[in-house]
Amino acid sequence: MPLPAAPDIAERTTTCRSTWSGRLARVLGAAAAIGVAACSPSPAPPSVQDFLARHWAEPIAPQGAPPAGYSALEASLSPAACGQCHPVQWADWQGSLHARAMGPGIRWQLQLMDQAAANRCVRCHAPLAEQKALLAIEHGWPAAPSQPPPAYVDAGLAHEGLVCAACHVRGHRRYGPPARPAAADRDAALAHGGFVESPAFGDSRFCAHCHQFPDDGPRTAGKLHEDTYAQWQASAYAPERSCQSCHMPDRRHRWRGIHDPETTRDAIDVQLQVQPSAPGRYEARAEVRNTGAGHHFPTYMVPKVELQFVRVDATGGESPIGRHVIGWTVDTAITREIDDTRIPAGASAQFVVSFDAPPGAGWTVELRIVVKPGEHYERTFRDSLSRADRLPPAAVPLLREALQRVVDAQYELMRVRRAPAG
Q1: What are the φ and ψ backbone dihedral angles of 304, each rounded to 5 degrees?
Q2: Where does residue 171 fall: left (phi above 0), alpha (psi -120 to 50 degrees), or beta otherwise?
Q3: CA dihedral 257, 260, 262, 265 (to 10 degrees)
Q4: How do 195-197 and 173-176 pair as beta strands?
Q5: What does the pLDDT look like over 320-335, one tens digit per residue?
Q6: Are the CB atoms for 221 and 66 separated by under 8 Å?
Q7: Reduced to 3 states, what is the DSSP secondary structure of residue 86?
Q8: Cα–Cα distance measured from residue 293 to residue 344, given in angstroms and rounded to the nearest whole number
């Protein structure tokens, strides 16, 4: 995907040492290592766009043999190895969706795919060449390596999803955002020869590699299946707030979104009114405003937010009176749009149900908001299970587990109750 132009911003290699190792000289080039002070910028700094074009060039190249001076811990691509020196980031990642990017929901589908089709998925779900090689061995694909993986590739790496190295390691060099002052000034020797720092890690375009399909990507009803970056670009947030400012505050590696109740509550404002509309008839009107998401609420076809309207009488008896769904609903074949009620950033939408007035006084209407982060997957998985006899036997247990995870992820976000006006 061509990236939008951006002004030149420096990229530099940080070691914070007064001398450079031979390994680091190879990273910078011999000329850059001569007479350069510690933490100095490299010449001809590339733009963020140039950095990302190289960093996310597809396919990501194999890491190759680690430098001779690396310990086994420094050479390892395992998140657990990174966690030995970065425990907070590792703990955050373990609780994130990135760590579950190769869960049963994709693994059962790989049972039905050839390598070319699988590569279109794992370009984001398990993008390292080493992960793809392990998957090729596991599935017996034609391009599978004939030799076992090298020592720096853990046997379980392919199932660990979007690992630390997917964003931070290329050719065994480590890359990251500019060091914070306290970290840059420390005197202790840095592992793996330091790291190459780039402000690209704080730029929304870094996320666009997976969270924005190109213009010729798959569409339904003319709409790209993944369009989050473009939604953000069109919002009032784009000039001021990056994706990372909401989903990685203080550089935390949690990437919380609609699966997280607190994040979802912060994204919307909800108002409810109950008013007479005709003799013996009332309307319950809910207004939902997208006040905190820098993209559509919700952003793409998988999640749904269900508005359940319930009339509650004076004794506590309940009667459902209607429901609405916020989201982009398509059929399970992803070929036909059913409805699109997503709310763009800064916009609002109203959802109305009409009902008969109950006898007596003291009744209210309660709006219950239920979030289904994997609603599209739930329909798809149930549909696939109805044809389980036609699936590879190894796929069925994974499919059942994936469905259960999707169902377990649902939660009630909030309740709002109002008495009728007048």
Answers
A1: -140, 150
A2: left
A3: 70
A4: parallel
A5: 999 999 999 999 999 9
A6: no
A7: coil
A8: 8
Q: How many CB atoms lie within 10 A of CB 87?
A: 10
The amino acid present at 394, given as its one-letter code, is A
**Strand partners of residue 353:** 284
Print burial letters for 90-121: b (CB count within 10 Å at least 16), e (below 16): bebbeebbbbbbbbbbbbbbbbebebeebbee
> How confident is the model over 202-218, as pLDDT tens digits?
999 999 999 999 999 99
Give bridge partners of residue 84 from the DSSP assignment.
Answer: none
| C-beta of residue 308 within 8 angstroms of C-beta of residue 325 | no
**Tokens at residue 299, please?**
């952003």
The strand pair at 304-312 and 318-326 is best described as: antiparallel
Q: Are strands 173-176 and 12-14 parallel, antiparallel or unpaired?
A: unpaired
Average pLDDT over residues 78-87: 97
Q: What's the pLDDT score for residue 30? A: 27
Nearest to 176 by CA among 154, 195, 148, 157: 195
Q: What is the pTM of this model?
A: 0.87
Taking every pair of Cα atoms in the chain, the longest distance, rounded to a whole number of angstroms, is 88
Distance CA 62, CA 84 (A): 23
**Cα distance between residue 174 and residue 181, in whole Å:** 19
Q: Answer positive or negative: Cα dihedral of 102, 105, 111, 113.
A: negative
Q: Answer yes or no: are the C-beta atoms of 388 and 396 closer than 8 Å.
A: yes
Task: Please check whether residue 126 is in contact with residue 132, taking contact to mean a CB–CB distance below 8 angstroms.
Answer: yes
**HEC string for 147-187:** CCCCCCCCCCHHHHCCCHHHHHEECCEEEECCCCHHHHCCC
Q: Go through the chain and tell me how many residues it has.
A: 422
Report the alpha-carbon distance of residue 330 to residue 123 in Å, rounded: 24
Give the model's pLDDT for residue 183.
64
Secondary structure class of 340 (helix, strand, coil)? strand
The CA-CA-CA angle for residues 189, 195, 197, to 5°, reads 130
List phi, psi (to 5°) of 121: -90, -45
What lies within 8 Å, CB to CB, of 361 at 6+ separation is 314
